[in-house]
Structures are given as C-alpha cells and as structure tokens.
Amino acid sequence: MGIEETSDSHSDSGNSGALAEYFGFSEHGTDLRTEILAGLTTFLTMSYIVVVNPQILAQAIQLQGYSTSQTTSMLAVVTIIAAAVATLTMALYANRPFAQAPGLGLNAFFAFTVVGSMGISWQTALAAVFVEGIVFIALTAVGAREYVIRIFPEPVKLAVGTGIGLFLAIIGLEAMGIITGDAGTIVALAQVGQSPVAIVSIVGLFVTFALYARGIPGSIVLGIVLTSALGYGAEWFGLVPGGTLTPSSTQVTYNIAPVAGAFLEGLGDVEAFSFALVVFTFFFVDFFDTAGTLTGVSQIAGFLDENGNLPDIDKPLMADAIGTTVGGMLGTSTVTTYIESASGVEEGGRTGMTALTVALLFLLSLAFIPIAAAIPLYASHIALVVIGVVMFQNVVDIDWSDITNVIPAGMTILIMPFAFSIAYGIAAGIVSYPIVKLAAGEVEDTRPGHWVLAAAFVVYFFVRTSGLLQGNL
C-alpha cells in the first residue's frame, strides 16, 4: 500500500516492514505487536471449537473400523484445517481481523436434525454443506447480497440467534446429564444428585460462567479443561469407578481420508425435498449469522460507513463461503465468522494480520489433537450451554411492541428447541410472517418472495410429516 512508517509510531517496523505495507498498519493505526496480541486473544476465546465441533459431529459421523476417539481426532484435524483455510482467506484476501471456523448451531443442525432426525446420511449432509458453499460463492460473486437480505423477514432474521441458543443449551444440558426425557413432562430435571457426570458438569459449568463473566480470555477452554481434570481426578482418587467420567478410548489418528471427499458419495444419494431444505437452512443461518457478526464486530472496530454498512463486505463474505466449501469437501459442517473476533478487535486488531495470527495458531493446535480426543463429552458440551446463554442477548433486537414481529419471531424461537430443528424454526417464522402481515392489514410490508417461501414451506411441512417421504430418506 506504499505507506511509510515512522520509528516513533511503530518500533517494530524494522522487522515487519513487508507485513506493515501489505496489511496497511499505518492506515489502520496499528502495529505488528498489537495485531499478534489481538490474534492470540481471538484464538483463545474461540479455540473451544477444536474440541466441541468434533464431539458433536462424531455423534453423526460413524466410521466402520474406527473408534469414536479416532473419529473425533480426525474430525478435529478437519476442523482445524477448515478454520485455518477460511481465516487465511479472510486475512490475505479481505484484510479484516475476523476469524472463522465451523459454527456452533450449524454443526448441531448437521448432527442432530439432518442426520439424526431426518435420517439423511452424513455423506449427503456434507454434500449439502458443499452445495451451500457453492451457492454462497456464486451469490457473493454476482453481488446479490442485498437481494438475499431483502427476501427474508426481518423478525425471523433477528430471532434465529436466540432460537439457536435455546437449541444448543438443550443439547448441552442433556449431554451433561442435567436434563432428560420424561414420559410425563417430555423434558425434566435428571436425578443430578445421583449422577457423577451431572455433578461434575454443574461444577464445571458455573466455574466457566464465572471465568466468562470475569472476561478472562479462553474462559470456555479453561472451563472445559478444568471440568475434564475434575472428572479424571474423581476417578484417580477412587471417588467413582473407572470409566464413569472419562472416555473409554483415547486413540488418535491424523488420517482424514475416511471423511475427506465423502461429500462426493453424498451427491449421488440426494432426495430433492429434504436436500433442498437442508441446503436452504445451512445457507440461511450461515449467511445471516456471518452478515450479522461482520456488522457487529465492524461497529466495534469503527469499520462501518455513515449508513452503517461495512465497505467491501463481499470480501469477508467470500472468505466465509470459501471456508464452507472447503469444509464440506474435507468433512465438517458449515464454516462461519465468529463473534469472538470482537475480543481481538477490542485488543486493537484492525487488519488481516490479526486473522493471519489466528490461522497460524489453529495450525499449531494440530499438535494438541490427542488432548481433544481425551476430553469427555459432558465437558466439551459446557461450551454449548455457555454460548447458548450468551446468544439470548440477540432477543433485544426484536421489536416486541409490534405483534406482526412478535408472532414470527416467537414461532422461530419456540419451534427450534421444541421440534429439535433449526430448519423447522426458520420455516415456522417464514410461514407465519406474511399471514400475520395480511391479517393486520400490512400486506404492503411483504414481498412476493415472502409468499413464495411461505408456500414452499407449507408444502414441505406436509410432505415431510405426512409420510410421503418415508422410505426415501
């Protein structure tokens, strides 16, 4: 960028001249030390995904001839590579301090809804991730972002984060042994006083909440590690029988061949209705989660223009789309931009050097794959509860004084956890939006796309729940 630096403002210019010029340190009022510190902070706050994403996906991706711990370890490798590729693209192409990795919520949708509830093979689910990434790349390349944003009802977009938070919290609390299914009440408090897993999980959860509230970088990772240590310690001191609180196997493999490229097999086993819904949901959540995160973090960084828009937003959106496509090819769920990037921005990160630091730290974390394989499921799922609770903050953005916003937003939030599906929650909100607008005499607020989407989802709900697809999934 040809910007000269003075020794007064940048004491490290002697050994970072090329980086300073490439990323524009002077233009953004930063320096190499600040950018590296910001990258380290961002990585610490989001590195829990290296443990959590594999644990979630391993519940859907089962490989013949490989133990659960081996599958988890190879998925950890895939998670790291996908995160590194996406974040490197963000650094070198978009020159923004945003970090990316497989997203919470989308991985749960992949494992528990697409593969678990809908019965779609994990290979086909990966194919849907790949197709979603290609669609995202195409729409970003032709500059169709504004059109895509306009076609979705605003209250539904604003409600998705809270709905996903509830969805994640239920998954996490169940894995921690705190809630359980019940014939009489559907969901009930488990017998936590009789469960070592629940007791250790509760202690770990509140420790993690305390660390998070104190603003300690890496608080979720620390909470996961401390909870795991508590479980191992309880067995070591003979408080509980061996194998009660620790994984039965900690075998590790770095060979990702069984999952890399599996999407190709999935492309040959596609059922149109369900596949389209899965692709749509992946795209919807990824697109609006990324756009919302980019806007929110950019506001903190001072990147937004006078109209509240991020200049050249298509570049970070393209980095997200490329990450998702590569992730689907390698064997992981949708990649998205992390709100934890705000922690690095608050430390002064302003350029792609922050993202480059995060990407390099992800690659260095490959050395710690054996630790990820040794983390118990209940410990890793503490992250779901903590992040789920934090995501409740999004609900304040909804205009609760307008009933035509309340109904679609409320349906979106309620259906997600109760139907155990992010897709169904989004669909319920989209279907209800034009109906209540019409009933309230505000049909001018709707667009043809709203009605087309609503009609399509009504048809899908009928086909999906009437048994017509039975035997095809």
Automatic annotation (TrEMBL):
Keyword hit for Metal-binding: no
CC terms in the record's Gene Ontology section: plasma membrane
Transmembrane segments: 36-61, 73-94, 101-120, 126-144, 156-180, 192-213, 220-239, 272-288, 353-372, 378-396, 408-431, 451-469
Membrane topology: Multi-pass membrane protein
Major place of residence: membrane
Keywords carried by this UniProt record: Cell membrane, Membrane, Transmembrane, Transmembrane helix, Transport
Annotated localization: Cell membrane
InterPro entries recorded: Azg-like, Azg-like_bact_archaea, NCS2
Top-level taxon of origin: Archaea
Any one biological process term the GO annotation gives: purine nucleobase transmembrane transport
Family listed: Belongs to the nucleobase:cation symporter-2 (NCS2) (TC 2.A.40) family. Azg-like subfamily.
The protein, known as: NCS2 family permease
Protein's organism: Halorussus aquaticus
